[in-house]
Write a structure and sequence with these properties.
single chain; 4-stranded parallel sheet; two-stranded antiparallel ribbon; 175 residues; 6 helices; alpha/beta
Length: 175
């Protein structure tokens, strides 16, 4: 029995046909001209209902080698049939593990993505984003972020002031 490495040896005749079509570039012609949006949630090591960082990194390498991974501003673009398929990576809820595990992988491979951070709990009026901001202020490993055009300096000397500034900004947002 053969195994599938994504596009090499095939498990079934259909896999073999898809592999040939992919290598010939025919699937680009047959696929949608619109952006494909891939939504990830939690990326963390260990057991659980999530991808591990090693598997996610394999996803990133595969996507980067076979698709055009785009920034959000390119999302409305309609590609020609001969261009690589556009893919947008998104992450829901802004979990701390996204900052700890996802961001370093994306930076290492120079792949863009968009992160959605929840500002309210899904049940009732319970506030959720304060917990995220607290965890972010303690554990985000990068030197800074850009949010809505504003840069927040997260180096040790500026972190406390920048997190306060970010908190004030989030408090001014209206649902």
């Amino acid at each position: 029995m053969t195994t599938s490495d994504g596009l090499g040896s095939a498990k079934t005749p259909a896999d073999a046909i898809l592999g040939v079509l992919w290598r010939a570039g025919a699937l680009r012609l047959l696929s949608s001209r619109r952006t494909i949006v891939l939504m990830y949630h939690s990326i963390a090591p260990g057991p659980g209902d999530h991808l591990g960082p090693d598997v996610f990194e394999q996803h990133v390498c595969f996507l980067k080698s076979r698709f055009h991974v785009i920034v959000p501003d390119e999302c409305r673009r309609v590609r020609s049939g001969s261009e690589d398929i556009d893919v947008l990576l998104t992450f829901d809820d802004g979990f701390l593990n996204n900052a700890l595990h996802v961001v370093p992988i994306l930076k290492r491979h120079q792949v863009p993505a968009i992160f959605f951070v929840s500002t309210r709990h899904c049940s009732g009026d319970r506030i959720l984003w304060f917990a995220y901001l607290r965890a972010f202020s303690r554990g985000f490993p990068e030197k800074g972020i850009v949010l809505d055009g504003t840069t927040y300096d997260l180096r040790p000397r500026e972190r406390k002031r920048s997190v306060r500034k970010l908190r004030d900004y989030l408090l001014c947002l209206r649902p």
